[in-house]
Amino acid sequence: MKQGNIDANAFQHYAFLADWNKAHKSNLQPVGETVLGPGRLYSDKYKSVKDIPDGGTVAVANDPTNEARALFLLQAAGLIKIKAGVTSPTVKDIVSSAKHLHVKELAADQTLASLKSVDAAVISATFVEAAGRNPNSAIYVWNANNKQSHQWVNIIAARHDDAKKWYIKALVKSYQTKEVGQYINDHNNGTEIAAWQGAPKAKIVTADTASSASTASSK
Protein backbone atom coordinates (compact mmCIF):
# COMPACT_ATOMS: atom_id res chain seq x y z
CA MET A 1 0.00 0.00 0.00
CA LYS A 2 2.88 2.38 0.70
CA GLN A 3 3.86 2.11 -2.98
CA GLY A 4 0.32 3.01 -4.10
CA ASN A 5 -0.73 -0.37 -5.51
CA ILE A 6 -3.80 -0.45 -3.24
CA ASP A 7 -5.82 2.34 -1.63
CA ALA A 8 -6.54 0.82 1.78
CA ASN A 9 -6.18 -2.35 3.81
CA ALA A 10 -7.88 -3.80 6.86
CA PHE A 11 -5.68 -6.37 8.54
CA GLN A 12 -3.59 -4.66 11.26
CA HIS A 13 -4.30 -3.20 14.68
CA TYR A 14 -3.07 0.15 16.02
CA ALA A 15 -0.02 -1.36 17.74
CA PHE A 16 1.10 -3.22 14.59
CA LEU A 17 0.64 -0.14 12.40
CA ALA A 18 2.67 2.04 14.78
CA ASP A 19 5.53 -0.48 14.76
CA TRP A 20 5.35 -0.88 10.97
CA ASN A 21 5.39 2.86 10.33
CA LYS A 22 8.42 3.26 12.59
CA ALA A 23 10.33 0.38 10.99
CA HIS A 24 9.57 1.45 7.41
CA LYS A 25 9.71 5.24 7.90
CA SER A 26 6.12 5.44 6.69
CA ASN A 27 3.04 7.40 7.73
CA LEU A 28 0.10 5.15 6.90
CA GLN A 29 -2.97 6.41 8.76
CA PRO A 30 -5.76 4.64 10.63
CA VAL A 31 -9.03 5.81 9.05
CA GLY A 32 -11.60 3.55 10.69
CA GLU A 33 -11.90 0.80 13.29
CA THR A 34 -13.11 -2.68 12.37
CA VAL A 35 -12.81 -5.64 14.75
CA LEU A 36 -11.08 -6.78 17.89
CA GLY A 37 -9.83 -10.28 18.57
CA PRO A 38 -10.44 -10.46 22.34
CA GLY A 39 -7.43 -11.80 24.25
CA ARG A 40 -8.10 -15.24 25.74
CA LEU A 41 -6.61 -17.27 28.56
CA TYR A 42 -6.88 -21.06 28.27
CA SER A 43 -6.25 -23.95 30.63
CA ASP A 44 -6.55 -27.72 30.36
CA LYS A 45 -6.49 -28.01 34.16
CA TYR A 46 -8.86 -25.33 35.46
CA LYS A 47 -12.25 -23.88 34.56
CA SER A 48 -11.77 -20.49 36.22
CA VAL A 49 -9.02 -17.95 36.85
CA LYS A 50 -9.59 -18.24 40.59
CA ASP A 51 -8.63 -21.94 40.41
CA ILE A 52 -5.09 -21.28 39.13
CA PRO A 53 -2.87 -22.31 42.06
CA ASP A 54 -0.38 -20.22 44.00
CA GLY A 55 3.01 -20.51 42.34
CA GLY A 56 1.46 -21.66 39.06
CA THR A 57 2.91 -21.09 35.59
CA VAL A 58 1.24 -19.12 32.80
CA ALA A 59 2.62 -19.05 29.24
CA VAL A 60 2.60 -15.98 26.99
CA ALA A 61 3.92 -15.30 23.48
CA ASN A 62 7.38 -13.73 23.40
CA ASP A 63 6.99 -11.31 20.46
CA PRO A 64 6.57 -7.63 21.46
CA THR A 65 2.93 -6.88 20.59
CA ASN A 66 1.54 -10.26 21.66
CA GLU A 67 3.51 -10.34 24.91
CA ALA A 68 2.34 -6.89 25.92
CA ARG A 69 -1.25 -7.80 25.15
CA ALA A 70 -0.99 -11.04 27.13
CA LEU A 71 0.46 -9.30 30.17
CA PHE A 72 -2.28 -6.66 30.18
CA LEU A 73 -4.79 -9.52 29.97
CA LEU A 74 -3.23 -11.19 33.02
CA GLN A 75 -3.38 -7.88 34.86
CA ALA A 76 -7.04 -7.40 33.93
CA ALA A 77 -7.71 -10.92 35.23
CA GLY A 78 -6.17 -9.94 38.57
CA LEU A 79 -3.21 -12.31 38.25
CA ILE A 80 -0.33 -9.83 37.98
CA LYS A 81 0.41 -6.13 38.33
CA ILE A 82 2.44 -4.24 35.73
CA LYS A 83 4.66 -1.23 36.41
CA ALA A 84 2.61 1.96 36.10
CA GLY A 85 2.99 3.93 32.87
CA VAL A 86 4.43 1.09 30.79
CA THR A 87 2.62 0.75 27.46
CA SER A 88 4.49 -2.24 25.97
CA PRO A 89 5.40 -4.40 28.97
CA THR A 90 7.56 -7.51 29.13
CA VAL A 91 7.87 -9.92 32.05
CA LYS A 92 10.52 -7.57 33.49
CA ASP A 93 7.74 -5.02 34.07
CA ILE A 94 5.71 -7.32 36.34
CA VAL A 95 5.94 -5.81 39.82
CA SER A 96 3.76 -8.26 41.74
CA SER A 97 1.52 -11.30 41.47
CA ALA A 98 -1.16 -12.15 44.00
CA LYS A 99 -0.66 -15.85 43.24
CA HIS A 100 3.14 -15.62 42.87
CA LEU A 101 2.84 -16.80 39.28
CA HIS A 102 5.69 -17.71 36.97
CA VAL A 103 5.15 -16.14 33.53
CA LYS A 104 6.82 -18.23 30.83
CA GLU A 105 7.70 -16.64 27.48
CA LEU A 106 7.32 -18.88 24.43
CA ALA A 107 7.08 -18.55 20.65
CA ALA A 108 3.44 -17.77 19.82
CA ASP A 109 2.96 -21.04 17.94
CA GLN A 110 4.08 -23.00 21.03
CA THR A 111 1.58 -21.52 23.48
CA LEU A 112 -1.19 -24.01 22.66
CA ALA A 113 1.10 -27.03 23.03
CA SER A 114 2.31 -25.63 26.35
CA LEU A 115 -1.08 -26.35 27.96
CA LYS A 116 0.18 -29.86 28.62
CA SER A 117 2.80 -28.52 31.04
CA VAL A 118 1.60 -25.12 32.31
CA ASP A 119 -1.40 -24.08 34.36
CA ALA A 120 -2.74 -21.64 31.76
CA ALA A 121 -1.67 -19.85 28.59
CA VAL A 122 -2.68 -16.76 26.62
CA ILE A 123 -3.22 -18.10 23.09
CA SER A 124 -4.10 -16.47 19.78
CA ALA A 125 -7.45 -17.53 18.34
CA THR A 126 -5.59 -18.37 15.11
CA PHE A 127 -3.86 -21.31 16.78
CA VAL A 128 -6.91 -22.31 18.81
CA GLU A 129 -9.13 -22.60 15.74
CA ALA A 130 -6.44 -24.29 13.65
CA ALA A 131 -6.27 -27.01 16.31
CA GLY A 132 -10.04 -27.54 16.16
CA ARG A 133 -10.55 -26.21 19.66
CA ASN A 134 -13.56 -24.10 20.61
CA PRO A 135 -12.38 -20.51 21.25
CA ASN A 136 -15.11 -20.22 23.87
CA SER A 137 -13.30 -22.78 26.02
CA ALA A 138 -11.18 -19.89 27.34
CA ILE A 139 -11.33 -19.39 31.11
CA TYR A 140 -10.95 -15.61 30.73
CA VAL A 141 -11.60 -13.13 27.91
CA TRP A 142 -10.21 -9.59 27.81
CA ASN A 143 -12.51 -7.49 25.65
CA ALA A 144 -12.52 -3.96 24.22
CA ASN A 145 -14.08 -2.18 27.15
CA ASN A 146 -10.93 -0.51 28.42
CA LYS A 147 -8.25 1.92 27.24
CA GLN A 148 -5.38 -0.56 27.42
CA SER A 149 -6.94 -3.03 24.99
CA HIS A 150 -7.78 -0.31 22.46
CA GLN A 151 -4.36 -0.46 20.79
CA TRP A 152 -5.25 -3.96 19.56
CA VAL A 153 -8.43 -2.92 17.80
CA ASN A 154 -8.02 -3.66 14.08
CA ILE A 155 -8.25 -0.78 11.66
CA ILE A 156 -8.63 0.22 8.05
CA ALA A 157 -5.46 2.06 7.04
CA ALA A 158 -4.69 4.36 4.12
CA ARG A 159 -1.85 6.56 2.91
CA HIS A 160 -1.65 9.93 4.62
CA ASP A 161 -2.55 11.85 1.44
CA ASP A 162 -5.63 9.69 0.85
CA ALA A 163 -6.97 9.49 4.40
CA LYS A 164 -9.63 12.19 3.95
CA LYS A 165 -10.65 11.44 0.39
CA TRP A 166 -14.30 10.67 -0.29
CA TYR A 167 -13.80 7.07 -1.38
CA ILE A 168 -11.89 6.23 1.80
CA LYS A 169 -14.64 7.79 3.90
CA ALA A 170 -17.22 5.86 1.86
CA LEU A 171 -15.35 2.61 2.46
CA VAL A 172 -15.29 3.15 6.21
CA LYS A 173 -18.97 4.14 6.28
CA SER A 174 -19.99 1.06 4.31
CA TYR A 175 -18.02 -1.17 6.69
CA GLN A 176 -19.22 0.36 9.94
CA THR A 177 -22.90 -0.54 9.62
CA LYS A 178 -25.14 -2.37 12.04
CA GLU A 179 -25.57 -5.20 9.53
CA VAL A 180 -21.82 -5.73 9.10
CA GLY A 181 -21.25 -5.56 12.85
CA GLN A 182 -23.96 -8.11 13.58
CA TYR A 183 -22.59 -10.45 10.92
CA ILE A 184 -19.11 -10.24 12.46
CA ASN A 185 -20.45 -10.96 15.93
CA ASP A 186 -22.65 -13.86 14.74
CA HIS A 187 -20.18 -15.67 12.48
CA ASN A 188 -16.79 -15.61 14.21
CA ASN A 189 -17.50 -17.69 17.31
CA GLY A 190 -16.14 -14.93 19.50
CA THR A 191 -12.70 -14.83 17.89
CA GLU A 192 -13.50 -11.40 16.43
CA ILE A 193 -16.07 -8.84 17.54
CA ALA A 194 -17.20 -5.57 15.95
CA ALA A 195 -15.21 -2.86 17.73
CA TRP A 196 -15.97 0.56 16.29
CA GLN A 197 -17.88 3.17 18.26
CA GLY A 198 -21.57 2.34 18.09
CA ALA A 199 -21.02 -1.21 16.81
CA PRO A 200 -23.45 -3.95 17.96
CA LYS A 201 -22.34 -5.54 21.22
CA ALA A 202 -21.13 -9.13 21.16
CA LYS A 203 -21.81 -11.72 23.83
CA ILE A 204 -18.54 -12.93 25.36
CA VAL A 205 -18.55 -16.61 26.34
CA THR A 206 -15.95 -18.40 28.49
CA ALA A 207 -15.63 -21.94 29.79
CA ASP A 208 -16.87 -20.71 33.16
CA THR A 209 -20.00 -18.98 31.82
CA ALA A 210 -20.72 -21.79 29.36
CA SER A 211 -20.54 -24.31 32.20
CA SER A 212 -22.89 -22.19 34.33
CA ALA A 213 -25.37 -21.87 31.46
CA SER A 214 -25.27 -25.60 30.82
CA THR A 215 -25.90 -26.33 34.49
CA ALA A 216 -28.81 -23.92 34.60
CA SER A 217 -30.44 -25.37 31.48
CA SER A 218 -30.19 -28.91 32.81
CA LYS A 219 -32.16 -28.09 35.94
What structural keywords apply?
D-Maltodextrin-Binding Protein, domain 2, alpha+beta, five-stranded mixed sheet, 219 residues, 2 domains
Protein described:
With 219 residues, the chain is α+β, with helices and mostly antiparallel strands. It has 2 domains: 8-37 and 147-208, D-Maltodextrin-Binding Protein, domain 2 (3-Layer(aba) Sandwich); 39-142, 3-Layer(aba) Sandwich (D-Maltodextrin-Binding Protein, domain 2). It is built from 6 helices and 11 strands. A 5-stranded mixed beta sheet has the order 7-4-8-3-9, with helices on one face. Strands 1-10-2-11 form a 4-stranded antiparallel beta sheet. The longest helix has 13 residues, at 64-76. The chain starts with 7 loop residues before the first strand and ends with a helix.
Secondary-structure topology with pairs:
Layout lengths: L7 E2 L4 H11 L4 E8 L2 E4 L14 E5 L2 H13 L4 E2 L11 E3 L5 E5 L13 E3 L2 H6 L9 E3 L10 E6 L7 H10 L2 H10 L5 E2 L12 H12 L1
Parallel strand pairs: 4-7, 4-8
Antiparallel strand pairs: 1-10, 2-10, 2-11, 3-8, 3-9, 5-6
